[in-house]
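Protocol step 4 of 6: structure prediction from sequence.
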Amino acid sequence: MNERIRELWYQAVQPHTGDSWAEQTAFMAKFAELIVGECVGIADKSNTGSKSSNEGTEFYYNADIGDKIKQHFGVE
């Protein structure tokens, strides 16, 4: 397992140590939220909001991709 995923796993499991279904679903929700948050952070750091071109084709980087990821997964 990737070290960063392992760290996120432990962050999610800390408050959810029980074996009940409620504890397990709370853990899964927290783990997913942490992963989505990590992806949003990477996307936000990668976006420049600028324009570049490649062989005459212009590409615009979407500066709000992190917000779109959060919206897609329902994470605030």
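Step 5 (inspection) to follow. Residues 21-46 form the longest helix (26 residues).
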